[in-house]
Specification:
single chain; 294 residues; alpha/beta; TIM Barrel; 10 helices; 12 strands; 45% helix; globular
Amino acid sequence: MFKQAISHEVCNKPIPEPISGVGIGLRSPHIHQILSERPAIPWLELLADNHIADGGLIPAQLNAICEHYPVTLHSVGLSLGSTDPVNINYLNKLKQLKNDHTIHWLSDHLCFTSHNGIQSHDLLPVPYTEQSIQTFVDNISRAQDIWGDKILVENVSNYMSFNASEMSEIDFINEIVSRADCHLLVDVNNLYVNHINHAVDTTDFISKLPTKRVKEIHLAGYEDHGNYILDAHNNPVSDSVWQLYTQLIQILPNTPTLIEWDNNIPDLDVLLNEASIAESICHQTNRHEQYVIT
């Protein structure tokens, strides 16, 4: 169904240039500076839930941002792993943003955030089972029909495990993206959090990634709580996560990458410096690959 929607929208809107390079997540403390100084940021990712209010200053800012930067939407409210029906009203609001602006893609998480109509403010995990796979596939397919294009789904950090799980996380993810025919967003910090908290084998995870479906990479910082680490998005990217990113970018060269920082938000220059580190890793990897090929 969504293929028909794609062709209709392409006829009415110019096809944007592909997103590339290392972007940052746009947060409210930086909006004024970005609009006034217009730093050379390749692209921006917006928290979709912050931009679906009617009227007011936020839509005006969004208009200005989309005029000067390529933009993607990152959502936390699709609740793709929930047994609740997909929230059509919520999806229609996201679709309206897409209709009003040039939005490159929409992403959300492999989790659930609502149950029986009660909304949680956490990204809640699910067991890795066939039943969970089918729930995700049904909800992603419905979301894509309404959105009018393939969406990206992101691996999440977990702080509990289920005895009912029947497979590894990466096998679970592969089944979902294949059956739902969607794209994948790989969050490297989430992978590292699960490695520390649940002994997830990062080498196995990376080696089994469906590389043709990976359209975006996230980088963020965690918070160390001693006997576990928390995906808090309130610190610089750790050395261990940079090392994982270096491994990942070798098999996913030129994949658009994003720096996320949601809590204890620093000056914009701090985020731009994190982005420059990622850019440096990408360039070094690309040069190495070119040298090997030659």
